[in-house]
Amino acid sequence: MRVQATEKPGPRPGWLILLVALSIVLITVWYRESDTGPLHRVRAGVQATSAPVSAAGEFVTRPVRGLFAWAGDLGVSRSQLEQLREQNRTLRVRVAELEEARLENARLRALVDIPQARELKAVGAHVIGRPTNSWEGVITIDRGSTDGIRAGMPVVGPQGLLGQTVAVSPGSARVRLITDQRSGVAAMVQRTRAEGVVRGSIDGDMSLDFVSVDRIVKKGDVVITSGMGGVYPKGLTIGEVIDVRRPANALYQEIDVEPAGSPARLEEVLVLVGEPPAVVPEGGE
Amino acid sequence: MKQALPAIGAVLVATVLQVGLAPYMAIGGVTPNFILLVVVTLALTTGPTEGAIAGFAGGLLFDLIGTGPVGAMALVLAVTGYLAGLLHEQMFAEGWLLPITVLAIAALSAEVAYGLMLILLGEGGTFWSSFFTKMLPAAVYNTALALLIYPWLARFLRNERPMKTFRRLA
Lengths: 285, 170
Fold this sequence. Notes:
The complex is a heterodimer. Chain A folds into three domains: 13-60; 76-112; 120-285, Rod shape-determining protein MreC, domain 1 (Thrombin, subunit H, Beta Barrel). By secondary structure, chain A is of the alpha+beta class. In chain A, the strands form two sheets. Chain A has a six-stranded antiparallel beta barrel with strand order 1-2-5-4-3-12. Chain A has a six-stranded antiparallel barrel with strand order 6-7-8-11-10-9. Chain A contains three helices and twelve strands. By secondary structure, chain B is mainly alpha-helical. Chain B has one domain (5-18, 33-157): Orthogonal Bundle (Arp2/3 complex 21 kDa subunit ARPC3). Chain B is built from seven helices and no strands. Chain B has helices at 5-20, 34-46, 48-65, 72-85, 97-120, 127-157, 164-169. Chain B starts with a helix and ends with a helix.
């Protein structure tokens, strides 16, 4: 039977085999090469090229997001408002107490001549991009290597630690959030100084791991960075303990942590650039 | 080459939308995958080889604009595009139920395959947690978007037969 000239050729599995092999080679090269390898450089180039598109998306969608946020806030009830007012009053008193303690601490430090553990400079940045897919917790900021940003630097928001820079191009940087499943932060419970590691997860929840069952941790405890590992400075707020479980015969407790700051509505952040960070570009601390 | 231009254009536009629009359409941490929708539609309208090539190219762009391992989504979408393209001959201009069903299955399969790949590479969480929080919701979201996008996109990408039914749908 003669095949007509207009008939399309059938499936060609050779192409599929070739592309699958090429993909496997790419994955292997990606994991084997250093941060200055060709694939990392290509990604940095794509990131630099796509940053204006991210910024345009952020700018164009801002009114719509503002509208949604306003509509969401309409649901705040009178009792919630009263609760927030009460919380505000309590916090004002607490701030005054802490300010007094800070001044006293400064005076005592001067007396015994103890230097500050770490002097940190901060570079302000605008958030110009959100996660481009469901599988990552990464935001893009409008500061890059030309502003002194490098991979591995801590990034904080108004309410506490947000994450660390993982990929930097001249005019932009990507920040892996602490809620991302690839993030890990050396942490401790502020009240009891129980140390562990805060890890993100695929669904955006965080847990405080490796806290021994003999350490007392309660719901409502504040979790801060411990400073171990050298990436994050000590004392940055990570979040609050929302649930503690102590399984029978387990070595460690299961502690759920709620992040202090949500990046969803965040527009500005600070990158801490005080001193060279330990370079942990992909896997967190 | 001239026939490939709409396909190249569609993949590039999908990439731009993935960077500039998809992050702001996220619902509960689930972001639509425009590149996946374009690749499967391309595969259904042109065939398996074209689907595999478009899948590889689109997946590579997806990998490069994100922070995950480069090559993972390229592999997943190349296979997804090829398998969806095998059904190319079964697609008729008059029907939309079959392509949407294929799109739904392809969306779920691609998300599951990508999630499994991340877990195997040590970059993902546990399977069932990922399945219920990412894979399944993403597949539902992408299928809902496919209902809106597929008729127009298929008409744009297919240049062999007129799509009378899509004129009514679109």
